[in-house]
Write a structure and sequence with these properties.
With 310 residues, this protein is an alpha/beta fold. 25% of the residues lie in helices and 30% in strands. The relative contact order is 0.16. One of its GO terms (molecular function) is oxidoreductase activity.
Length: 310
Amino acid sequence: MNTTTAAVVRTPGADAPAELSTVELAIVTLPAPAADEVLVSVAAATINPVDVAVVSGFWHSIGAITQTEHTGLGWDVAGTVLAVGSAVTALAAGDRVAGLHAGVDHAVGSAADHVLLPASAVALVPETLDLVAAASLPLNALTAAQLLDLLGTPTPGATLLVTGAAGAVGGHALRLAARLGWTVTGLARESDRDYVESAGATFTSALPEAPTFDAVADTAVLAEVAVAAVVDGGRYAGVIPVAVPEGVRGVTTTAVMAAPDGERLASLLAQAAEGLLDTRVHATLPLAEADKAVRTVAAGGVRGRVVVLP
């Protein structure tokens, strides 16, 4: 058995008693790795909007969390393998890895000093990519890649609008879509024009007045407003599976639920090491300030990841 110090929520929601800390550190016992698991010493983890929703009580309110004592925070992780399960052959102690600790119903998330992960959710980090940068990638880069999967292979000249194009998922979607062959336009604030254009996309700060694009990757969750930008018979893919807008005019609508994929993540990490994907970091904070990290993400408007360092 091992123990880990983890950022957790005991009393989620705005109605939590004032004397209770919403986000705190807890010492939690971890079992030895199962046959298909790896134990990772965490070097960096990130806080995401999904963690803010844990702290706010949203996931508890819809019955997605069943933890009775506390709920761990964090999905992205990068660090060093300490031990591997008996069936794991592709990884070994000492390997530098990144991975996705998916789901919200955990006693321990990646915002901890140690975490257990399925080996299939982990990928080796290229030597030229530091672990803080690597931790910025798994959730958002995999979400972007799997979001584009839902839109299918573009035909020559097919046009794609990425909403929220300067955001964490949207920024990756811009770059990945262009390499897939889409003709990409990025919807963002005027202040983000340089960022969008640096990704090789056409910048726009406003949605079109009439259906214009063959497909929309809606990372800004504009929903019906974004569907209206798609031509008849086109495709829409969003990032909120529980709130897929209705398809109209023959537009197909769907949404992505990011899933761990170590093989896909290895490719994305390699692209980041080559400078083909960005690894923006807004701030790094010690694990002891995980509450501040959550508040920073909740405030919105940041460009780059908020990373906690055990």
